[in-house]
Every structure is written in C-alpha cells, then in structure tokens.
Amino acid sequence: MKKTTKSGLIVLILLILAIVGYTVYTIRGMDSGTTTSIASTETYRVAEDSKTYDPTAAKGYKNEFIAAVYIEGTISSANNNYNQKWLLSTIHSLKKNEKNAGIAVFINSPGGAVYQADEVYLALQDYKTTGRPVYIYQGPMAASGGYYISCAGNKIYANRNTLTGCIGVIMGSSYDLTGLFEKIGIKSETIHSGKNKNMFNYNEPVTDEQRAIMQAMCDECYDQFVSIVAKNRSIQYFTCRDLSDGRLYTAKQALDLRLIDAIDSWENMLKDLAENELQKPGIKVKTFKYEKKQSVYDMLTGKALELENAKAAAQLGVPAEVMKSINDADRFTPMYLAPVD
User: Fold this and answer.
1) Is the dihedral of CA 304, 306, 311, 315 positive or negative?
2) Does residue 281 contact residue 52 with C-beta atoms inside 8 Å?
3) Residue 95 in contact with residue 126, Cβ under 8 Å?
4) How far apart are the C-alpha atoms of 282 and 294, rounded to whole Å?
5) Quick check: 161 and 251 in contact, CB under 8 A?
6) For 131-186, how does the pLDDT look when each residue is reduced to its tens digit (9 = 90+)?
7) Quick one: which of 137, 141, 155, 277 has the most CB atoms within 10 Å?
8) DSSP code of residue 83
9) Cβ atoms within 10 Å of 76's Cβ, excluding its own
10) Which residues are catalytic?
C-alpha cells in the first residue's frame, strides 16, 4: 500500500473517531448539564448622569449591585430559553447576597405553566421580605403567566409597544378521532380503570362530566390569577374579573386599567430604581440571563420528532399540529399562556 494511501486512511479514521467522540460527549452533556451556560458577566452603572450623583457618596455602595434578571420564553420546567431550576436558584441566591440591593426583572414571555409561574411569583415575594425592591420591565410580550409574575413587582414598567395582560387560563385541546378511525379501519382501545381515567384521549369522545371536570380546574386557576392581580394592583375584585377576559392589552390600555405603573424604557426604569427607590445613583447593574447551547443530539432528536409527527399525521389525514398536540405530554397542564405561536 502506498504511503499516501496509508496517510489518507489514518486521517479518515481519526476524523471518524473525532465525530463519534464529539457525539458521545454531546449526548452525555445533555444529562450532566454541560450544554447549559449561565451568563452573569455583564456589569455597568446606572444614573451616573443624575443630578444627585455624588462620587464620594457612591464609594459607600461601590460593592453593591442591582440584579438584572431576564425571564424569556415559555414558562415551563425547562426549554431552550427558560429554566425553572436556574431561575429559582438565582432569586434565592440573590436574597442571601447582602451586596444585592434590588432586582430588576426583564420579562419577554407569552406565559406558560400555572405551577411554574406561581413558583416564580412566590419566590419574588419571598425575596421582598428582605425589604429590597423588585422592579418589573415588560418587553415585547409579558402575557398571561408573564403578567402573573409581574404582579410581584413593587413597580411595573412596560415598553410603549408591549403586549400584556391576557389574564386567563387555557388547557390542552381534545381531539376525538374515533370517527376518522372508524372510516379508515383503525381500532384503538385503552384499557383503564375509572370512567374518567382516559378522558380527553383521542380514542374516546369527551363526556359532559369530563368537560365539567376540566372546566372546574380552569376556573380554580383563573380565580387564583384574578385574586393575585386584584390584590397586587389594588383593583376591586369584580372590576378585575371584568377586565380579565383573556385578551391582550397594549401598554397604553394596561396603564389606563392600572395593570402597569409606567410606560418608559428599560434604562429609565433602572435609573428610577437606582436614583429614587434605592437613592444610590451610580450603582452597578449585573446581568443574570439563562442560555442553553443546543447540542447536536438536541437538533437531531427535534428534527426526528417533527418528521415522525408529520408522517403519522399524513397517514391519518389530520393536520400536523393535531398530531403534535396529541403527543404533547403537557397538553392537560393548566396554562397561563397567551394563544400565540
């Protein structure tokens, strides 16, 4: 065998080993957390241009900081943009950190799961027992669960183009495919005990009793949401119910309804927090933001699931979104979620 041929084979073998090694490392990293990174390195100062800024006085709080905590994406246990464990841990660690003077929360979220949204709301309320403030800034969207969390703020700011509100509860849709199965000759049966154990499955029609069961769950979560808004925004309960019909509000509409306190920029909110609330112009701001680096494994499995859903949908003659909803493990989880893609 020629020397050049041997060299080529060696290079090919090394390349294959490198690809296999990287794939194994990536897959393992998914479990060990190596695909996840937390950004909290950006630091800057605010309100240094304030008339009350005194460089000498500022030396007294030079080690203190405002924590800019970003809540972005759909609120759930974890996804590419959001991680509940990280968020709760961050809030808890800031509570224990005596150098932290307050939290500024930036929210850009359509909402999400009732359980997780309430956990974050309670964590922020617990943080406030230190006497330190929580200011909320609503970005492009702070709807449903995003607005629910906003209610923990001492003050809520919004951008003039923010969409907010959407106070209501939604649970997964039910698809009854029994008629389609009968037409194309498919028989599907789920063995179960308890007449409502299989409710809202695609192979059984929904009964009136089952609709009532799900509606009662929705109504209980809804009442909790309305009560929290009414209490924190100082709005009479029945007035709050009237405006809590699930619609999105513009920033101006939300301001008129007292759902927010001000329409301004993120920078001006930080300035207000530093200068007027804390009376510490020139204080540092540290950024805390969750980031997940998508692995090769994540991309491949995601694409494979999309293709499988599309194939199954085509075989049954139903829209791909229907198949995706049927396979969604959280489809019956109560959601404070805006009906947007």
Assistant:
1) positive
2) yes
3) yes
4) 37
5) yes
6) 999 999 999 999 999 999 999 999 999 999 999 999 999 876 666 566 776 677 77
7) 137
8) B
9) 20
10) 144, 197
